[in-house]
């Protein structure tokens, strides 16, 4: 409660309260329509989605609101208390992401957006093809091409699919991508930034391009020797052909996911996730979460977690809890679906726990769009899903339908097959920011299709040791305004995840799984601030006691297989011997399991979360009878 001594003047208080309420209303209207249309619910309306989206954009783009905020901030410091200033500064920071104040910049921006829409329109008509083993030419989506590169037994098919993914580059380059890069740079320079990359990273992360690449350069240098070792090992074990870009992922993929499948029954995933989070002391503070986990005709083909209500603490002390909508595309009796579902629940449920616990004076601290830091958001979800790779977690939670734990022999195989090659994913990840940096640093007269294609190949060679299995120009993030120049966010998040893990392992004697102190620690250091101060880098430093660095990540990758096996075996033995976690699950959340318009189970009417997961299991067993075999 605000005491009389620190209360804001009535006009400021009522401005903030009205702003918060209006924002919450516009945000919820859009997100409700988003959910209804994407889940294809009865009575959904694309027109209502468009008009609510425009209303939200108009609200965030309101110059009069920005002027009012600046007016308040300009007033005497003794008149406007710091608690109100914190909120006002956040409103200013957010509105500035949606308002372009100079007329010149506005014109350049509109040109860039127009070019991008034209390129995307053309891209939607792009129909890649590949040649089957029998010589037939077949059309396929990029998702199918990528799956085939990993799994097709015939080398000619893999090669043809990979070549098809390489056609995106020339297509984009012939359809306006070089002009888009030039216009984006012009826009950023009008606003005083070095280039578009510098603008994006500064706005999203609060540090500039120079700082961003100092950190990436350190990681690049530290992992170059690991890449060399991994490439040599793969060549020695599987022959030089395995290094070809269309063979690499195939050479690394084994039968492991099929053998592990029985230990991840799909229908148990929500219960396992709830148990694991509750045991770490994670609570959702009154959140209502809708979960639509299974695939069906007419459903949007990408999983996501969105928040129709971003939480905040009102000036009168009232807590406005969050509302979350979470969807995935599982087919419960398909091999691998249970493992995917569980990892996705740990990841997206991690995002939801983060956002549910942001406790600030406006929902603008807890909305996931700009200026929210990608690094900060992904650190939370990736930290929690990283547990799914730990023997300490697998020994407890990877259990088949009879309750038997995953055998050590499978985990041993997994470590031997995967650990020596982890560096490939890291190098594939950092290649994207290096490529985008090069793109936006090219002088405008050099921005030709040939030059851009050549630079992409050069960076693949330099960073990945040869042409990439996933060609840089086929990475979808690089084209759209929103997702371009932000891939470094995933890299810094992974760095922070390793540093956070190392910190907790040291502090808590090697125990993260089922440690009830972890949730409160995350809440205090990482979650409560949202997108306000102190910001990502400082939060990591405050929790772990050192500035963010690549040390912990590199050390974990460089650990040799025999020592890793010895350590993980100890963790596994202890986990299997531990008492099973079978108590009540109190997540402080109302969970509603749905399938489109059908409500499967609601923890409020079912009498608790565990009861709701029981109803969910029954529903899965009834609809996919193969899952009921050993139930
Ligand atoms: Zn995520």
Automatic annotation (TrEMBL):
<dbReference type="Pfam" id="PF01432">
    <property type="entry name" value="Peptidase_M3"/>
</dbReference>
<dbReference type="GO" id="GO:0046872">
    <property type="term" value="F:metal ion binding"/>
</dbReference>
<comment type="similarity">
    <text>Belongs to the peptidase M3 family.</text>
</comment>
<keyword id="KW-0378">Hydrolase</keyword>
<keyword id="KW-0862">Zinc</keyword>
<dbReference type="GO" id="GO:0006508">
    <property type="term" value="P:proteolysis"/>
</dbReference>
<keyword id="KW-0482">Metalloprotease</keyword>
<protein>
    <submittedName>
        <fullName>Predicted protein</fullName>
    </submittedName>
</protein>
<keyword id="KW-0645">Protease</keyword>
<dbReference type="InterPro" id="IPR001567">
    <property type="entry name" value="Pept_M3A_M3B_dom"/>
</dbReference>
<feature type="domain" description="Peptidase M3A/M3B catalytic">
    <location>
        <begin position="151"/>
        <end position="558"/>
    </location>
</feature>
<dbReference type="GO" id="GO:0004222">
    <property type="term" value="F:metalloendopeptidase activity"/>
</dbReference>
<keyword id="KW-0479">Metal-binding</keyword>
<dbReference type="GO" id="GO:0006518">
    <property type="term" value="P:peptide metabolic process"/>
</dbReference>
<dbReference type="InterPro" id="IPR045090">
    <property type="entry name" value="Pept_M3A_M3B"/>
</dbReference>
